[in-house]
Amino acid sequence: MDINFSISVIKAITEALPITLSLTLLSFIAALILAIIIAMIDYFRVPVLRPICNLYVSFFRGTPLIPQLFLLYFGIPSFIPSLREIPAFTICVIGLTLNAAAYMKEVIRGSLLSVPIGQKEAAIAHGMTPIQSMFRIILPQAARVSLPSLFNNLVDIVKGTSVAFTIGVIEITATANLRASVTFNYFESYMILMLVYWIIILILERLESLLEKKLSIGYR
């Protein structure tokens, strides 16, 4: 193993790490908001919007992430030239958001359905509107149920950022690949890259464990 090269790769990946973390954080927050909206549309069986949302979920769950990014970055702008000015980073966030939200919607929907219907009926009987009962009674309980699965989605987003280099975003995977392509030290580059991803996931798993304990205490 080339120690000097490995040190240079670690330094380069560290410099590119904020791009990967930004992609992850922005995509996760946007996907969570979108997933909650779509899940509530499905939960309340909103006419017209519900079948549209189901079609969206089916499409993004049924197609790979890379073609989705290519469609957003290369395909759609060919018909709408003004979209070519959108940075690749933004396109990647949009793509990861749309992809992740389709999976997270199903997680949230299942969590909403896990809350006993009697609690919703009791809230309405006490004068709450369906929307009030959703935000005050149902969603807080559903959040606790959905937490492990949502963290799995977050992990998937972290790993999904590795395809951002296919549309020119220089995150940690692109950095490792560029370094390896110059010196042909592929083993060192990709091993260090995998270790960095592993460390990120381990940190997220620890955060999930702490959050679950905190929520468990709140429900005792």
Tell me what you see in this structure.
It is a single chain. The protein has 220 residues and is mainly alpha-helical. It has helices at 3-43, 49-61, 65-79, 88-114, 117-125, 130-160, 172-183, 186-218. Helix 1 packs across helix 4 (88-114) and helix 1 (3-43) packs antiparallel against helix 7. It starts with a helix and ends with a helix.
Uncertain stretches: none
Distance between the termini: 52 Å
What's the story with the biggest beta sheet? none
* Rg for CA atoms: 21 Å
Task: Report helical residue fraction.
Answer: over 70%
Mean pLDDT reading: 90
3D shape = flat
Please tally the helical runs, counting DSSP H or I stretches of 4 or more residues. 8
Structure summary, number of beta strands = 0
Global structural class: mainly alpha
Order of helices and strands: HHHHHHHH
Beta-strand share of residues? under 5%
Keywords:
220 residues, mainly alpha, 82% helix
Topology:
Layout: H1 3-43, H2 49-61, H3 65-79, H4 88-114, H5 117-125, H6 130-160, H7 172-183, H8 186-218
Helix pairs in contact: 1-4, 1-6, 1-7, 1-8, 2-4, 3-4, 4-6, 5-6, 6-8, 7-8
In short:
The protein is mostly helical and 220 residues long. 82% of the residues lie in helices and 0% in strands.
